[in-house]
Write a structure and sequence with these properties.
alpha+beta; 6-stranded antiparallel β-sheet; 62% helix; 500 residues; Outer membrane efflux proteins (OEP); disordered N terminus; elongated; 10 strands; 21% strand
Amino acid sequence: MNGKSEIRMDHPVRACSRRLMMLLTVGISVVLNVTEVRSQQVLTLEESIKIARNSSPDIRKSVLNLLSNRKSLDAQRASLKSRFSLDVTPIDFNRTRIFNDLISQWNTNEDYNSFANLSITQPIAKTDGTISLINRLGYRDNFSEFQDVRTKTYSNNLYLQLDQPIFTYNRNKLQLRELELNLENAQINNALQLLDLERNVTQSFYTFYQSQNDLEISIDEYENQKISYEITKNKVDADLLAKEELYQAELNLATSKSTVQNNQVTLDNAADDFKLLLGVDLTEEVTVEVDVQFVTREVDLNQAIQFGLENRMELRERAIAIERSQFELIRTNALNEFKGAVSLSLGIFGDNEQVAEVYQSPTVNPRVALSFTIPLWDWGENKARMEASNANLEISKIDLENQKNDIIIGIRKAYRNLQNLENQIEIARQNVKNAELTYEINLERYKNGDLTSIDLNMFQSQLSEKKSTLASALINYKIELLNLKILSLYDFENQKPLIP
């Protein structure tokens, strides 16, 4: 009796504890769910593209390449400015013993030098020459064993020198132009990569959105199947339908639930791919938000082609390739060319035992030099190289023409696809309306016993399919509109050019 009494007294306590634990568990679950919802990041397409631009390895490499080419051009431009240099040799001592033929005896000579060279060199960009102002100040202490003579003198040589190549191309100017083209090409590549990234992010974004939409449609279908199942179950319980109808309803419900689970897996996979492309932490919860309401955009085919041919960066890349081929032609022609060089200098030289009196009796030192390089026979090397360079130049010109045709064809195809998608969207919208009305009508028929569950499931599947088709058509229109923007470099959605 006592034991039973203790059990009766302990039972309410345990029940209360279980209720308390249940409430605590539910509370914690609610808090966790709220926290998860709050931490979930909702992204628009513009935000996604911005994140990808900041985190994409390809874009970062492209920016670094752009920086490298810009700095190389800055360095080349700086090299065309005046250069100042100072060379100092404080000690240069040597002792030699040589045989002097003039006096027929060995002689020991000690020589100590200390000198400094200050030069100012200015490249001449227009002629590829250089003009230099050079000053050499030196001190010399020389001792000769012959006649036991020691000489100590200061000397200074100040002169202006001009070096000018003739009958050849301007190498500095060509190198500067090449670096300018390299920078422009790097800018084009960066812009193309940004457009390509925008395309990839947009496609992944809408794939993610499509997966979200498919999941929502399958959930709606699942809810409708549950309603249908309850109706069937009630009718079977009331002996208004055969049990086979309940079995079919259970199968339809299970199939619908499986579709929800499959779409959830597809959504999770699409989310991982999307986060990987954006460089977002894979553990972060992300969802997308988009307005896919269809608004017809006015697209002028001739305007799109005109903008494409005027602004497409691939055409400028081809033009740069042609210019580079012409540079290569110039270099090839100069391998065995007739060329010359002119060197002029004029200065004064003075020496004295006293440094302050170095120019007491100066000597004028003019110098003129003219030289030529004359190729005689190269066994046809230069001709063969020139023909190869000319062939590469023609290839670059053909590539340019092909690129123009590809641009025109690409824009035309995108334009036709947009026109076709507009019709598909209108048809898909009407199909959704018809499928909704058909499902509602047949649901009432099913409730009244005039329709089997198999037939109702067919109408439900048809409704889900039409909704998915409409969403796909809207997304395809958005993507094709972006494709036309990239092909023509004109934003028809906002009616403005991408390049001012």
